[in-house]
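sorry for the late reply, my laptop died twice this morning and i had to redo everyting from scratch. anyway the thing you sent over, i finally got around to it. pasting the sequence first so we're on the same page, its 136 residues, then the predicted structure underneath. double check i copied it right bc i was rushing
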Amino acid sequence: MRSVSRRTPLYLSRRESEVLDILYRRGSATAAGVLQNCTDPRSYSTVRTQLRVLELKGHIKRQKRGGLYMYSAAVPRRLARRHALRHVLETYFDGSLEEALIFALTAGSFRLENGARQRLAELCTSEHVRGVAGRG
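ok and here's the structure:
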C-alpha cells in the first residue's frame, strides 16, 4: 500500500470523497457500516470496490478485527483538507487564495453562519493573518 505524502494531492471522485468523509466522521467502519451511511444508492460490492481503490491509493487503511475488516482514514483530516484546498485553488483560481475568498464571499450561493462575518473580520485584522500575508 502506498502512503500519502504531504505532496500527494487527494484527487478523489465524488463517491470516494463521500466514503472517506464517512470514515472521518465515524473514525472507522466496516464496508456494511460505510454502505449504511452513503447518501446515494449503491451495492455492497461497489462499496467494497471503492474501499479497495481508496486503500490502493493510500487514503485509507484496514485492520482485521475478529472476522471483519475495519476501515479508517490513513491521512489526518487536516492534511486532506490542505491538499484538497490546494487542488481547488490551483485548478479553479490560478493558485490565488484571495480570488477564491472573494468568489466565495460574493457569489451569493454561499451563506455565512451566525457570527462568521464578525469572526472573519477579526481574523483579517489579527497579527496571524498579517504575518501570513507578509510572507507572500
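Confidence is low (pLDDT under 50) at residues 4-9.
thats about all i looked at so far, will dig more tmrw
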